[in-house]
Design a protein that fits this description.
The complex is a heterodimer of chains A (about 300) and B (about 400). By secondary structure, chain A is an alpha/beta fold. Chain A contains 10 helices and 9 strands. In chain A, strands 1-9-8-7-6-5-4 form a 7-stranded parallel β-sheet. A two-stranded antiparallel sheet of chain A has the order 2-3. The relative contact order of chain A is 0.15. In chain B, about 50% of the residues are buried. Classes of the chains: A alpha/beta (about 300), B alpha/beta (about 400). The interface between A and B is large, with 41 and 31 residues.
């Protein structure tokens, strides 16, 4: 049993203010950089205090799930502003300016920050990155994601997939081909964020060539998990879109009922959809749930 | 056949002038801000702004000063829309912090839960529902009365709809128990109870009071309505609950930046909804032309053509996300295309959405061109009709 927190973490109120001030010309880029570092230090401390097994850098500088890769990539650019799922938040849709995009250099430390311990890294799933670009997911996996993966030193790379659950199982085959192209690097998990994975699970999601599969259990009924699930299950048991704080004991009992051997407790998507003060408490409860689940299993 | 004439109107919010923003934020007003107030007073032919300018030059603002600044901001917003030539006006929601925040700050049952990123370095405050929502008293009546006393034009009062309030709030009350691993049916029922409570105990009493004060057109704003296609029927039910029993001559629904095909056939169940005001220009070509191929952004109108019993269309002809000022001829062609497809009696003209992210200069130019383009469309259609007689 593990616990960790993939995805984009919310900015503190101090960082919110600093970035607002930067946009309005009321502070310097250096001052904002210093606040980013303070936010990162605090996030590391919170994760360590919660007892999470793998650290994350919270992607604090990522403006959305795709932006740094679009800005660093050749043949890619940030496109129109789009609503992210059914939230009141928006992202720049990936747009291809060439049929053969590539990532000439992996992202630097601004986007994959050094951490004092074993870590995870989150990247967009190739299906999500390719959506709407007209470029096959396999091409983007090979030429954009693979060079980035090869440059990472991580225990696990979580590929965040927000769209597939809504688009249906038709995209599974192209995703499989893309994931095959990513083999040979760090272990991969595909996380279906903020969506009901039932149809995907019924159509082979659990057989994709990755180490772990992430399921949002605030949108997916527990019984939809196939019997004999034998991958690492990234169980989305902390609701990143709810301000309500989870009960660690309730989570522990829920996970016990799933009957899966290898489980990592995770939020069901980016925690940036709650404020930083709430996210901090959710991380603490994520860690507490893992402890409670260990007791549950021992009992 | 009588001559074709289209109504023009705004949709929602305008940007707030810097002198208003700074005054309420407790930041110093600079000379440039005062000059901006004077420039726009002249452009809008506003009389009596000396008291505003004098107030803005003060070092500190008391309660009465802020009230005066608030009132003038509303008058500027109203005047800008009038001067641009719109038939139907309001005040650009100058007194409202933001469409979501305005409601939850006036309602009981919500608590603020901090700052969430909208995009890049833009953020918004988000609240949680912690008990059944309600209001102590209607909160938009004074706003309406102030405007009604200062314009001869028809007013259309906007109200943020229940679906958007629910969708943009955290739920710490309705679905709190058993949400982990719950069935879709359980989640839907929790959402439905939340929606109907907001519709019946927040939106409806407020809108009803504004109508009682004399307003004859209420617009329910639901930008989020079709983001979850399976919940569109709930959104329709919530609209009906919001306007039930309110004797407004017109009730309309504004939706934007969504896949409108998901709205059908459910919108046919909207009770006495005069019109759907929709965003189209955002997805359309800038080229001139009145054929379907020239107007790719307006493809959804075919659904309205197929459903004659659907509400009329408030046609978004101005993109609110760019500084590109649509030439009057482009507006003309968009209106002509829609009118020829649906019949002019089913079409009115508006921007895609509120222009709050544009400067007043850009917003004014866009609206003025929208009105001019609408007049050109009327001329073209009337000319064609006369030629066919």
């Amino acid at each position: 049993m593990q616990a960790f927190a993939p995805g984009i973490y919310p900015r503190s109120e101090a960082l919110v203010q600093a970035t607002r001030d930067l946009d309005r010309g009321r502070t310097t880029a250096e001052a904002v950089d210093e606040q980013f570092q303070r936010d990162l230090d605090e996030l590391v401390r919170v994760q360590q205090e919660a007892g999470l097994d793998l650290l994350a850098d919270g992607m604090l500088r990522w403006q959305d799930l795709f932006r740094p890769l679009l800005e660093a990539g050749e043949g890619l650019e940030p496109g129109p502003l789009m609503r992210f799922l059914d939230t009141n938040s928006f992202y720049r849709a990936p747009t291809a300016t060439s049929g053969e995009p590539r990532l000439p250099q992996p992202l630097d430390e601004r986007y994959v920050a050094p951490l004092p311990g074993a870590r995870i890294v989150t990247l967009p799933s190739p299906y999500a990155l390719a959506l709407g670009t007209g470029v096959p997911a396999k091409v983007l996996a090979t030429a954009v994601l693979k060079p980035q993966l090869d440059a990472l030193d991580a225990e696990l790379v979580v590929l965040s997939e927000p769209f597939l659950a809504r688009d249906g199982a038709g995209g599974l085959e192209s995703l499989r081909e893309a994931l095959e192209a990513l083999a040979g690097g760090p272990p991969l998990a595909l996380q279906i964020t903020f969506g009901d994975a039932r149809e995907l699970l019924r159509n082979g999601l659990a057989e994709l060539p990755v180490e772990g599969i992430g399921v949002d259990f605030y949108a997916t009924h527990a019984t939809d998990l196939p019997r004999g699930f034998d991958k690492l299950l990234l169980a989305g048991v902390v609701d990143a879109r709810s301000s309500a704080l989870e009960d660690p004991q309730e989570i522990a009992e829920f996970v016990e009922r799933l009957g899966v051997e290898r489980v990592a407790l995770v939020p069901n998507g980016d925690l940036q959809y709650v404020s930083e003060s709430i996210a901090r408490q959710k991380l603490a409860r994520l860690g507490a749930a893992r402890t409670a689940q260990a007791k549950e299993t021992a009992a | 056949m009588t001559d074709v004439k289209f109504e023009t109107r705004e949709i929602g919010s305008l940007a707030k002038p810097p002198w208003r923003v700074k005054a309420f934020a407790g930041r110093p007003i600079e000379d440039g801000d005062v000059a901006e107030a004077e420039r726009w007073a002249q452009k809008l032919s506003l009389d009596g702004t000396e008291e505003l300018v004098e107030t803005l030059r003060r070092d500190e603002f008391g309660k009465d000063d802020l009230r005066l600044i608030d009132d003038w901001s509303a008058q500027y917003g109203l005047a800008l829309l009038e001067r641009a030539g719109l038939d139907i006006v309001y005040d650009g929601e100058q007194r409202r912090t933001e469409m979501y925040d305005h409601v939850v700050r006036h309602a009981r049952g919500f608590e603020q839960r901090g700052t969430i990123r909208s995009f890049d370095n833009k953020y918004y405050s988000k609240a949680a529902v912690v008990e059944e929502p309600s209001i102590d008293r209607p909160y938009d009546v004074d706003e309406y009365r102030f405007l009604a006393a200062r314009t001869d034009r028809r007013l259309k009062a906007p109200f943020t709809g229940p679906y958007t309030i629910v969708d943009w709030s955290y739920d710490e009350h309705y679905g709190r128990h058993g949400s982990l691993g719950a069935t879709a049916e359980q989640r839907t029922e929790a959402t439905r109870r939340f929606l109907l409570d907001v519709a019946e105990h927040v939106v409806r009493p407020n809108a009803a009071a504004v109508v009682e004060a004399g307003c004859d057109w209420i617009q329910i704003d639901e930008p989020a309505l079709s983001t979850r296609p399976d919940e569109v029927p709930l959104g329709v039910e919530a609209f009906n609950a919001s306007v039930a029993g309110i004797p407004a001559a017109r009730r309309s629904l504004h939706i934007c930046f969504s896949d409108y095909s998901k709205l059908f056939p459910y919108v046919l169940e909207l009770d006495d909804c005069f019109e759907l005001q929709l965003e189209f220009a955002n997805r359309d070509s800038h080229e001139l032309g009145t054929d379907g191929a020239d107007r790719p952004g307006y493809e959804t109108l075919l659904l309205f053509a197929d459903h004659e019993d659907a509400p009329s269309v408030g046609l978004g002809v101005v993109d609110i996300h760019t500084n590109f000022v649509e030439p009057a001829e482009l507006v003309r062609d968009r209106v002509v295309y829609a009118a020829e497809l649906l019949g002019p009696e089913r079409v009115s003209v508006n921007p895609d959405c509120g222009l709050r992210t544009r400067s007043w200069d850009v917003a004014y130019e866009k609206l003025a061109n929208m009105v001019e383009g609408t007049r050109l469309a009327e001329e073209a259609l009337n000319r064609a009709h006369a030629g066919s007689r």
